[in-house]
Amino acid sequence: MFRLRRFLKDYKLQLIIGPICKLIEAVFELFIPLVTADIIDNGVKNQDVGYVLQKGALMLLLGALGLGFALVCQKSASIASQGFGTKVRNAMFRHINTFSHSELDRLGTPSLITRMTNDVNQLQLAVAMLIRLVIRAPFLVIGALIMAMTIDLKLSLIFFGAALLIGLVLFIVMTRSVPFFRKIQKKLDRISLISRENLSGNRVIRAFDRQESDEARFDEKNDELSHTAVTVGRLSALLNPLTYIIAQAAIIGIVWFGSRFVSDGVLLQGQIIALVNYMTQILLAMIVVSNLVVIFTKASASAARVNEVFDTRPTVVENETEAQEDEAAPCIAFENVSFRYPGSGNALKEISFTVNRGETIGIIGGTGSGKSTLVSLIPRFYDATEGRILVNGADVRDYTFRCLRGKIGLVPQTAALFAGTIRENMRWGKKDATDKEIKKALKISQSYEFVSQLPEKLDKKITAGGKNLSGGQRQRLTIARALVGEPEILILDDSASALDFATDAALRKALHEETKDMTVLMVSQRVGTVRYADRILVLDKGELAGMGTHNELFDHCGVYREICLSQLKAEEVRNP
Amino acid sequence: MKQKKKGTVKRILRYAFPYRKSMICAMLFALLYVVLNLTAPVLIGLAIDKAVGQGNVDFAAVSQLLLMTAVTVLGGAVFQWLMGLCINTVSYCTVRDMRREVFRKFNSVPLRYIDGHPHGDLISRIINDADAVGDGLLQGITQLFSGIIMIVCTLAFMLMLNGWIALVVVVITPLSMFVAAFITRLSQKQFKEQSETQGELSAYINEYVGQQKLVKAFGYEDEVQERFEEINGRLYVCGKKSQFYSSLANPSTRFVNGIVTTAVCITGAISVINHTLTVGQISAFITYANQYTKPFNEVTGVIPQLQSALAGAERVFALLDEPDQEPDPETPVVPEHCQGKLDIENVSFSYTPEKKLITNFNLHVRPGSRIAIVGPTGCGKTTLINLLMRFYDVNEGNIRIDGNSIYDMRREDVRSLYGMVLQESWLYHATVFENISYGKPDATLDEVKQAARSAFIDHFIERMPQSYDTVISEDGANLSQGQRQLLCIARVMLCDPPMLILDEATSSIDTRTELKIQEAFNNMMKGRTSFIVAHRLSTIKEADVILVMKDGNIIEQGNHQKLMSLQGFYYRLYNSQFASST
Q: Which residues in chain A are contacts of B514 at CB distance < 8 A?
């Protein structure tokens, strides 16, 4: 938790002023019972109304000053804690941006969101409490103890006993209930999971008529949750009555022994009242302490989750200097490349091939054959486990990210767009793209027609993920986005799967005609998509099963032949 | 508005009604606890009065009073504890019941509702809103209740002790309420803004971290960070304000308490000088004054909690008030041995009244025939499936299976006639075995293995760590898209239904496996009426009937030859497939 203190360094002033002001307020507060005792023991005893009023005014003054100091403290706390949280979030987001896919897969987006929101909020609260209460509450307890000692040393022993006992009760109840809180959070996650599954699979559940078993599954977890909640509730319900008993027992003790001392003439009646007030103050402060314990336990758990993000080092590290490119070298070359995802077998095994500038390469293979993995290695979403990949004759690891990825236009498997206008989305490919450049890309990607039919045209607002467009429209726009920057290398990662075959064909034709110098890698499951490529790479279980033109592969590559025959009729398989 | 709130509160109380015994006990215990809690300071005050000064202490009376105090304190503590237990039971059980009902509702609303609402929002109702009701309202109500009892009793005790001082306290305390109300109003706007900005931030993280690959591919990290810091900066400003305003409440009310204590001290001291009050009574009064102002603070503190609870309850009730789907007929027709004859008669359907989709659609399917549905992306192919399986009801016309209207049957009977493999393969967090046997829970391991074999997924399953007992992770993330779909196919194969609906089922499966699956499907489709949403030409050509859909409407139907000879939309669609070969 303390490692995160670096984010507090701009708030040193608030961190010092806040607690000091709070301390001053607490000092004033401690004086009030003394003044009360003074009023009774001197004012009342001497029948001096003037004295009583004078002391009363002092009490008001102390209160008002206390309020002023408290406000300064609250202001410091809100500035420091919110500022701290904001800085942590910015740093986390920046750090997450450096992660490669291996790290993101491991942590998961939903978990990153809760870490950046709930967990940071928890830490913010802890910082605020640190300033507001961490000094005040113990100070009040200790102060009340000291004040009690100044009144009567022997009676103050009761205070020590009571404070220790209350502390013990707090400690026991807290340590017992914290694990339960964690359990409750987990069970709540489970309920949320079952609900999500039910909603996303509602058609399937209804189709198989499994509503009842689904409800039973939910009820079981729901009952477990309420059971745990009731159990922990039973435990925390003990806290208040127990502290109450201890504090009241102490008060009884004070009066009992106090009355003896009064009788012996070593204590005044008003001092007993002051002692009783101090005891009440200790009780209240101890309750605050118990809340603090809860807040800091939660915060330390959150800090661990936040630090886990900061401790995750990106596995793909950027080179800082530019690579030496070689105009004469092939555009892309794989040299004995193997790749393995952490904790599983080889996804790619010793792949070697070269692609020349301007070539169109089809990549085909079954599910899990490594097609998408292969193309992910070129823009360095992952680094090859063995071997190396060259772009324009230079190792991809020698490029800066900006330079390497600037050469590549990528169309991912899932057609994702971002919230914003179509124009804004298109400018992802090139930050200062003109409407003319955008229109050209839209035309090639076969999306110009539907975009120009929209009333808002390029200013059409797209909702997050592109949910207000059909799957095919989305996919065509993602292709256009990649084309806007006129990249050297275009990677289509199974990007035509949501297109009907007519659009798919028109798209390929336009790509072929309009982008002569572009090197195109086209991943697909459909023979129809890749058959007219200059060359086709055939992948089978992570290995290169063949490379060549459609007709060559059909004659010589068994795997390819099988794929063709599963999709096409015998009379259709030959290219003209 | 007020009326609506009242209705919501009443309705929440109705959920608590089964636990009314605990509720009544809680109230009773609260009353006893408060009374005993208030008696203790009186007894202490009386005891202090017995210790006037040197040699002037009535020890017998002191010990007697202290003994009484001890009993009172113990009683108070016990009742406070019991009250806590009762409230716990009521609130957690009520929330549990509410959640249960919401979950039941997910299964009984028309699918139209689930399709039309973001799932995150519905989940938030079952989790967060239900929690808000439990935390806020039930505990809020008890706090309100014990607070009011506390105020009334304290007032009564103070009046008994001394009317004038009590009057002073009564006059000053509304100040505390006024201050608290002012602060609440001040901070509420900021709170709302804060939670909205926080929502914006979450959505932003969700969108951009989820699509990290694209951010990287386009080198957009800096821009994305800039936008993030902008939203985060706004969150800082309103977070700072809302935190400051809401933290004003505590010191301000403490200041008001200070005023009350001072007033009590002064008037009390003057009263003692005038011999209308004893010193011990001042002690009791100060304690009371504190106790009297405390519930006011608590009550004002509970208000935001109550408001969020009411808002949560309203969202939960809005969901529960959604009309259920039409109930099944009381005397349903039960299909005996299904032939697979299907008649669609004059069917019209649209999702929204403004946009007509299918109008006057007729189709007569002979048992065992194959119907391919084709058309460009987004042409509404899934609409037809929605109607066939009664996920949605037609606006006009009828659909008959073997001559029986599907509206005369129970939904579950209609659906059990179809085996369905949807575009998005749905698996749940359970073992492979449980997922395959989903449609037939009493299936044996051998049957499941057989189904897995016919779906060509058996080898893969056997290579998994615990084979058929391997638990599929949340969202099936440990499987590839193709493997998930194969599992769904195995699930259907196990059920062996008389009719099939295949929705682009094979689009992302390994092409070689697909060939084998095609064979398995061909075997399964023999003698079974099947609807296939297809992209692949061979499937389309072999179909008995091709339905050509465009913009949600069925524009052409017939077999391949017939449609080609029409030279219409299908003809163009078919020919364009060879566009690139020229």
A: 566
Query: The domain that contains A80 carries what CATH number?
Result: 1.20.1560.10
- In sequence order, what are the residues at sequence separation of 6 or more whose Cβ sits closer than 8 angstroms to the Cβ of residue B540? B372, B374, B534, B546, B560
Let me know if residue A46 belongs to a domain.
Answer: yes
Read off the pLDDT of each residue in B52-76 and give the average, rounded to a whole number.
86
A226 contacts in chain B (CB < 8 Å): 92-93, 95-96
Measured distance CA(B276)–CA(B262) in Å, rounded: 18
* Shortest alpha-carbon distance between residue A12 and chain B (Å): 17
Inside any domain, residue A518: no
Going by DSSP bridges, is the β-strand pair A346-355/A360-365 parallel, antiparallel, or unpaired? unpaired
Q: Which of B133, B250, B265, B551 to mutate to test the interface with A (most CBs of A within 10 A)?
A: B265
Instruction: Specify if A221 maps to a domain.
Output: yes
Number of domains in chain A: 1
Nearest C-alpha in B relative to A222 = B96
Residue in A closest to B419 by C-alpha: A207
Kindly state the helix (H) or strand (E) to which residue B374 belongs, with its residue range: strand B370-374
Give chain A positions within 8 Å (CB) of B104: 215
* Residue B403 predicted with pLDDT over 80: yes
Residue A473, in any domain of the structure: no
Q: DSSP letters along B225-263, please?
A: HHHHHHHHHHHHHHHHHHHHHHHHHHHHHHHHHHHHHHH
Q: Is pLDDT at A359 greater than 90 in this prediction?
A: no
Per-residue pLDDT for A324 more than 70? yes
pTM: 0.69
Higher pLDDT, residue A353 or B209: A353
Task: Summarize pLDDT for B331-382 with one digit per residue, the tens.
Answer: 888 877 778 888 888 888 887 776 677 888 888 888 888 888 887 655 566 7
List of domains in chain B:
2-162+277-320 (1.20.1560.10), 342-581 (3.40.50.300)
Question: Given a cut of 70, is residue B426 above it in pLDDT?
Answer: yes
CA distance A137 to chain B (A): 14
Mean pLDDT for all residues in chain B: 79
Strand ranges (E), B277-332: none
**Residue partners of B486: CB distance under 8 A and separation at least 6:** B455, B456, B457, B460, B509, B513, B517
CB-based contacts of A113, cutoff 8 Å, min separation 6: B202, B205, B206, B209
Q: What percent of chain A has pLDDT over 70?
A: 94
Mean pLDDT, residues B222-250 taken together: 85
- For residue A235, the enclosing domain spans 2-311
Model confidence at A342, in pLDDT bands (50, 70, 90)? low
Q: How far apart (Å, rounded) are the C-alpha atoms in residues B166 and B517? A: 87
| Percent of chain B predicted with pLDDT > 70 | 85
CA distance A121 to A123: 5
**Whether B547 contacts B573, CB under 8 Å:** no
Taking the CA of residue B568 and the nearest CA in chain A, the distance in Å comes to: 14
Give yes or no for B275 touching A (CB within 8 A): no
